[in-house]
Design goal:
Distance between the termini: 104 Å
Order of helices and strands: HHH
Low-confidence stretches: none
Structural class: mainly alpha
Strand content: under 5%
Radius of gyration: 27 Å
Shape: rod-shaped
Keywords: Coiled coil, Signal
Number of strands: 0
């Protein structure tokens, strides 16, 4: 009975490590996808997985698991990659907004020019 319990405990501990590593691996892929095609759905999924990884890391640290430091380092690196991807998205959104604003100004100027030209030909 004790051996079975010990084996089950070891299996759960190993599964917890694999689970944290699996979550980190998922995040790595999701962040790469977010860099290529950022959208709110991917962003929400990434943030959900960050919360999950932080919970898994806390469990590893609580148990004193030797893999906790490696997972912590990965978490830090993944957060940096994600912040960089979010910044790139924000800059791209700003660029698109400025281009849209520039086009709107151009269109307005063209409309004003046509209005004045129409007024001059009517006189």
């Amino acid at each position: 009975m004790k051996r079975a319990l010990l084996a089950l405990t070891c299996a759960l501990v190993l599964a917890g490590c694999d689970s944290a590593q699996s979550t980190a691996d998922k995040l790595r892929v999701e962040i790469a996808e977010f860099k290529n095609t950022p959208d709110e759905k991917k962003q929400a999924l990434i943030e959900e997985h960050f919360a999950k990884l932080e919970t898994q890391l806390a469990a590893l640290q609580k148990r004193g698991d030797a893999k906790a430091d490696a997972i912590s380092d990965q978490l830090t690196s993944l957060k940096e990659q994600y912040q960089t991807a979010k910044l790139a998205k924000a800059l791209n959104d700003a660029k698109n907004a400025l281009q849209g604003f520039g086009q709107a100004v151009k269109d307005t100027a063209k409309d004003i020019q046509q209005t004045f030209q129409g007024n001059q030909t009517n006189k």
